[in-house]
Amino acid sequence: MAKDLYNILGVSKSASADEIKRAYRKLAHLHHPDKNNGDDSKFKEINEAYQVLSDPQKRQRYDQFGTADPQGFGGFGGPYGTSENPFGGQYSNTQGFDFSGFGFGGGGLGDIFESVFSQAFAQVQAEVEISLTQAILGDKMQLKTSANETITLDIPTGTPDGATFRFRGKGNQTKRGRGDLLITVRVKLPHRLSREQKELFEQLRRTGL
Hey, what domains does the chain have and what are their CATH numbers? Predict the structure, then answer.
């Protein structure tokens, strides 16, 4: 049975993109492996759900077919039926459409689908929060990928909110190779400041920063 991605993130099917993002951030923070004795099973599940529901095209495919994986379209009552090889032979079971005259026989249509979707599913997008001082002064962060690999995020001095860093070959594995990992940083602004922090910021303001 396919996973209910909305249930994993604890949101409704009509949830907005902002609601999905907020739910993901909250759950990712709660179930981070560092807070769960290195157990990343729930963290991976949450991240996988977010990767689908945060992408409008993937979400649309999931809502329509019950999966965002193009290889799984046949098993959800879609137009390709439930045959083992939905891309081969005559399409007599595709609601009256016959694709035999379009040069897609012998698995050709399958190759087209693989080419279209392989790159999309190979790339992984994630977000990480950094503090204001990290953004201003720069820093290095050790992060773990979904493949349990450790990578170093080098945050340059003066990094703005929304800056995205690409890690080539650290995304999902597909038949065409491994994709890239894109990490977007979100600068977390403090809601409250101590007296000492306020004084420091006042000093910085006087310097013109």
Answer: 1-77 (1.10.287.110), 90-122 (no CATH), 123-206 (2.60.260.20)
